[in-house]
Amino acid sequence: ELSIPFPQAKVKELEEEGKTTILVGNQECMGIIAIMDKVRDAAPETIRLLKKKDMCVVMLTGDNDRIAKTIANKLEIDEYHSNLLPEDKVRMIEELNQKYGKVVMVGDGVNDAPALAKATVGIAMGAIGSDVALETADIALMHDDISKLPYLFELSKKTFRIVKQNIFTSIAVKGSFAILAFPGIVTLWMAVAFGDMGLSLLVIVNAMRLAVFK
Questions:
Q1: Are residues 197 and 122 in the same domain?
Q2: Residues 7, 58: one domain?
Q3: Mean pLDDT of the residues in the chain
Q4: pLDDT mean over 26-39
Q5: Model-level pTM?
Q6: In the chain, how many domains are there?
Q7: H or E stretch covering 158
């Protein structure tokens, strides 16, 4: 057994390495157990790509400040907040929402559920996420692959563009056929063939572009 009369310095050293410490002993400290979450292999590249898209990456964690600072520096995270309880994360989401306008929250645990619900968009890590987090989130990544986040954001932008294209095209075509119907330029069969069925096919084909988006 290893007796450590004054473990403060060692605890500080371990926490600065990003490790959570557990003191073991009876009446006096007999040892320290250091536990560290493994940073996902895809995390550094994912954060780099998100920042390249002019997104601010913020880490909200219940870990103490030394551990949070070490991980934030290692991953080059823009901003971090430590020692947060579930209600503190909700408060931080509200503050970030006021600061940036829109906030996307990524989480997996029960403690993340309230913040996921408060965010503009909540994304839960499916395979390891708690049931509460999955039910609360707007999106679930079923394979827990955070490298899909940049793709997810690009897909959402592409989807929104196609939705707007389909809406504007439908309004323009329908409006044109309605105007041309008064002087008799457009007949009934033309309105049905082009303004109804033809337009529906055009909208479907345009939306199918999402199936091949990579």
A1: no
A2: no
A3: 85
A4: 79
A5: 0.73
A6: 3
A7: helix 149-181
